[in-house]
Amino acid sequence: MNRREFLELAAAATALSTMGVRAANAQDTDVIRIGIAAGGPRTSDPNFTTQGSDNWATEQMYEQLVRPEDGDFATSPDKYVPTLATEWTSSPDAKTWNFKLRQGVQFHKGYGEMTSDDVVFSYKRAIADGTNRTIMSNVADVVAKGPYEVEITLKTPDVNLLGTTIFSNNTVIVSKKAFDKIGAEKFMTDAVGTGPYELTRFDSEWGEAMKRHEGYWGNKAKIANVECVFIADTTARTLALLSGNVDMIEAVRAPGWVDSMLQRDPTLQFDMTQPGSFNTLHINLKRKPFDNLKVRQAVMYAIDRHAVAEALKPMGGFMAGLQPDFFPAGSKTEDLPPELQYKYDPEKAKALLAEAGFPDGFDFDSNCSQREDYSSTMLIVQEQLRAVGLRMNLKIGDHTAYHADNRSDKNTLAMHSSSYPPIPTQLYFQQLSSKSEVKPDGKGGGAYSHYGVAMPGIDDLLNQALQATDYKIYVDLCKKIELQVLRDLPLIGLSTLSFTVARNKRVDLGYPVKSGYARWRFHRATKTA
């Protein structure tokens, strides 16, 4: 071990000690302990989670009416499986949905059986003050149709309701009786659900502990306890895994990290979601000369998107457009019209710049987050653009400040990283709709390009897709949006980046992780000594 590694490990050991992370006994097979990449939990109430890391615990404690198979996304409405609802129907206009509830489901801590009253309460709470009120705003009403049936009516059709609304953190079902008894403030750190684990400890500095819900309606969790230990420091988190203090950790999504971990412990296992984050690059159409289509085309030809994905392997993936090819509106490169394939061609990029009046290229400023996944990607892009004369002065700074600046329209080429389910209109609405246009006062949305305002956008097609009552028509409209975006280039799909967890070989999750959000359940997991 060299001096640098020694100092890193010494600092990490000190950090672990101050965090109260205890050593895991090799025979301790009744607990799964995961190291979370954040400073501490904010809430255990799923209606108010804004920090993705909190969702590791909420995923164990709460359930929705329906959900995908463990370790996957549902890529179409027919792939959702019954959970707290046993069956459901939709009206022909996709505006009225009826759900029959599973009977006999018990809440944690003796709060009794789940009924339609709890479902109505959970949904109305999400509509009133949840963190996903944009989607919930389409819900006109939720009413009980007896103790074990609810009806959800919508303001406009939604053929994807199961994915947009039902399988959401905000619409997990919590106990109305518990909320009324313990009060809203305590509920923030002691919410009561129906999931395979129930909360036993919430510590804003240490993390969250849960135990098996013995009254669970399905197969009970195989391991008795789960602990989500928050370790923000990368080196400390890595040491915690290598030393056996935790069983798994959230990975560092940066080039070379997986290889470096395998060099330290070749037996480590890595679980990766596909696609994970969508890394997109917004081109600000109000910043000259990026209002010129030839300049934007030059940017597209100058970026070797395959090389970007390759540099991030094994976590990185390629997108021909804005969706991975196995998502409903996704395409392979060869399926696109030749002029929209944008195969890497720096000479063509230089020619387009010359045609646009910039034979020698030009200089411009752009901001970037210092977080590893952002900075590593944008540094690659910076080098590729420089090779054709697009000299980007990249200003790298604090991650929170970076997002605040983007929200205030202070960027030229703004990278954004976010996870999306196989419901393409969610990305289009958040990153391309004129309704989500960024504003200088910070009160706008996440469409940093000003697409649909600085030039005609995809608003009409998006509205048609959102109003569709037939799923095939919905997908066809989304494919048209993909083609129009490739023609106009307000937004570039740089890569996907898998959410990744490194785990000790002694832990078997009980199912393969193929796709899905950055959280998965542990109720089927086993652990050997």
From TrEMBL:
Annotated compartments: Periplasm
UniProt domain Solute-binding protein family: residue ranges: 79-436
Pfam families hit by this protein: SBP_bac_5 (PF00496)
Major localization class: periplasm
InterPro entries per UniProt: Peptide/Ni-bd, SBP_5, SBP_5_dom, TAT_signal
Family from the record: Belongs to the bacterial solute-binding protein 5 family.
PANTHER family: PERIPLASMIC BINDING COMPONENT OF ABC TRANSPORTER
Protein name listed in UniProt: ABC transporter substrate-binding protein
Originating organism: Neorhizobium phenanthreniclasticum
